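Notes from the 1:1 (GR / supervisor)

We went over the backlog. Supervisor wanted to see one worked example end to end before approving the batch request, so GR pasted a single chain during the call. The sequence is below; no edits were made to it. Supervisor asked that the structure be written out right there so they could see what the output format looks like.
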Amino acid sequence: MPETTPDTTRSTVLAADRKLDPADADACDRLARTLCSRGHDQVDSPEWVARARDAWEGLPLPLRREVRRFRRHSGPHGTLVIGGLPVDQAALPATPTVPGSVQRRATVSAAVLTMVACGLGEPLAYRAEKSGALVQDVVPVPGQESFHGNAGSVPLSFHTENGFHPHPPDFVVFLCLRADHDRIAGMRIAGIRRALPLLTPAGRDALFAPEFITTPPPSFGPDAAATETDVKPRPVLSGAAEDPDIRMAQLVTTPLTPRAAAALTEFGRACEATARTLRLNPGDLVVIDNRVAVHGRTAFHPRYDGADRWLQRTYVTTDLRRSRDHRPHDGHVLAH
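Structure output shown during the call:
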């Protein structure tokens, strides 16, 4: 995989790990359109998700093989990037500019995202975030430039998604519908498998200790800390000492001891030293293993002219059953 000259963040700007050939991309497009053919299809309906789950089996074998392999082991970076996915660019409306924007109606891009989510596990959402939509827009919003979340355009610090929650997603899937005007927005990703060797023994020990509090991110709203979170102290790293899982968000993870503070700083430096930056093109699909990788974003300059950067996102769990007590009617949305 070719690498370019390092950018100003000192990480590496990479193209897609894989790119679908035109015939496979056309097959994906045709299959996605079958999920949008009824005119009233709703992405969040159980029936539509069931159709997307069945449709996954009809996607081209090279795409399904890459996703299955990644699910088993997400590699040194915890990231898979596949280019050339259909997003129906000719029919795209203006990039949304309203807070909390989501995709409720079936579209080609929503169908691609949901089929891949069903190949990885099951799609998942949180009622307090983006009104529980399964497919969410990641777009800049006027007046929220400094918002530390998906609506902002300032740098976004490293985090795993929803690490405060008893049931964080196992994977996060993004699909790029539009790049930013200046092609400078970068998705920054750092994996524990590269960062771990840079940590000192004392730092590792502290990160495995339950000496950190992680609260909900700003996207969950101001009341989430009181109603949506299990606030007991947790470790940042857990599981196998040689291949741990991560729960951390630099903005909302608070160390409770001096050694925890030092270790969190050390971990942040290790992530900076090993991070990759992805500059996405329309049709690029990014799958992040949320258990072993953190991600963030570089700054960019929105114009609010209808053609700004537009990603769509969905969360995935590999075991929907384990969150049954949080999901009314056995749906895909965690209510608390």
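Supervisor's comment: Helices lie at 22-34, 46-56, 61-72, 108-120, 192-195, 201-207, 224-227, 258-274.
Batch request approved.
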